[in-house]
Amino acid sequence: MGKVVVLFLILFKSLLCIENVLDIIYKPNEPLLGDGYYLTVIDFPIGTYSNTLGYFSNVEIKGAPLVYDNKLEKIIIKKEQSVLREEEVKWNKHRFEVKNIKLDGVNLSLKWSDLNKKRLDIMISNWNLKDIKKSIKIEYHYSKKIEKQILNIEIPKLNSKIYLDFDLENIVTKKQIYNKKYIIIKKIKLNDYDLGITKNDIDTLGLRLIKGKKIKLQGKDYSENVKLVFLYEKLPGVLQEMENQEYFSDTKREAYLAFEVSKPIDYNLEYKLEGDILSLVCGEEKINIIQKFVLTDGKNNVEKTILLDELYLFSNYINTNYLKEHEGQKMISNIGRSLGKYISQKIIVGKEELELEVDEMGNSDILEINLGKIKVENGDLYIMLTRADKLNFENSFEYEVVSRNNEVLENVKLNFFLKNI
Predict the structure, then answer these.
(1) How far apart are CA 224 and CA 201, in angstroms?
(2) CA gap 136, 399 in Å, rounded
(3) 58: phi > 0 → left, psi -120 to 50 → alpha, else beta; which?
(4) Claim: this prediction has a pTM higher than 0.85
(5) Cα–Cα distance between 288 and 279 in angstroms, integer?
(6) Does residue 203 carry a pLDDT above 70?
(7) Region 321-331 average pLDDT
(8) Chain-centre distance of CA 193, in angstroms?
(9) Taking a C-beta distance cutoff of 8 angstroms, is the pair 290, 277 a contact?
C-alpha cells in the first residue's frame, strides 16, 4: 500500500511539473536582428519582428511557447542545474521582461505579455558571431504547480560576406578618372541590413570595410605607394571625400574606392594595385576581400574612315553613326567599339580642347571646327564639312568623350576621303 502511495505522489508531482520544448533555429547565410529587436514566437512555425521587413523568414521555429496565465508568480531560468535568473513576476504595462541572460557567447532577453498568453518574445545581443548552440530551462511557478519550458537556440557562425552588395570576382577595371585627382577603383555598397547584430562588447563598431594604407601601384617603369580614399556622390556627378576615412559601414548609400594621383601616369598603359586594398572586418575576423586590382586603359579607342563621293553635298550634315550611301557617304573602316549614343557628356575637340556640352536628352549646340561644324542630336554626332579644299590638307579630326566627372570615356578619330568631288 505504501509503494502505491509513493508512486501516486510521484505521478501527481510529474503532472504538476509539465515540460515543453521550443527550438529557435537561426538560418545560415541570412541577416539576423540583434539588440533592440524582439523575435515574437507564438504557436506558429515562423517568428516575426515588429516594424521590420524581410527578416521573418530568417528563423525557423519548432514547437511553441507554453500558455501561461495571470496567476504566474515567478520565473526561474536555469542552465543545466545552475540558476541564471530568478524573478518575481510583476506586470508593467502588460509586459514582464527578463533582460540580458548571459550565456557563453550570447545574451538573451525574454519578454511575456498578459494580453497574449501564447506569446514569447526573444532577443539576442552581444553575440560573439560564432556558432552557438545553447539550451536553457524556464520554470513557470504558480502557487500549486510548476511548468517547464526547454528553450533551445541555434545560431550559425555569421557569414559577413552576405552584407556586401558588390562584385568581388572582377578584379579588372577600366581607369575612371575623376577631377584629374582620383582614379576610381570600384563602387562599393553594403546591403540594407541592420548591422546591430554585428556589434558586441569586443567590437562595438560592428561590420565595416577598411581600406589599405600602403598600396603599391605598378606599371611599366613605374612604381609608387598610393593613398586610398573613400568618395561619395554629394550631388549628381559631383564626388567628395567621405568625412570618415577610417572605415565604411553606411548601409544607406554607395561609396567609391579610389586612390589619389600624386604623380603623372600614362593613361594608355596598364597598371596593377597590390596589397590589402579592401578588407571586411567583423568581430575578431578580418577578411582581405581585394588584394589585387588591374587597371586597364579606361578609354575606348575608335577610328572611322568615311568615303565621300560625287553625291555628297557639303551643306549636309553627316551622321557618323548612320551613313547614307544614297547621299554619297560610305564607311570604309570602323575600328574599335564606340559608346554609341552621347548623353550627359562632353565632346572635347583637338589640341585646342574646344568643348561641346551634351545634355540629358542627347542634344547640343553647334560647334565650329577647322573642317566645318559639329553637333549632337539624339545622342548621335553630326559633322558638316564646309570646304572641299580644306580636306586636301587636313582630312581627319579627333575628339574625346568625357563624362561629367571628367572621366575620359572614348577617343575618336574620324578620317575623310574625297572621291571625284
Answers:
(1) 39
(2) 73
(3) alpha
(4) no
(5) 4
(6) yes
(7) 88
(8) 10
(9) yes
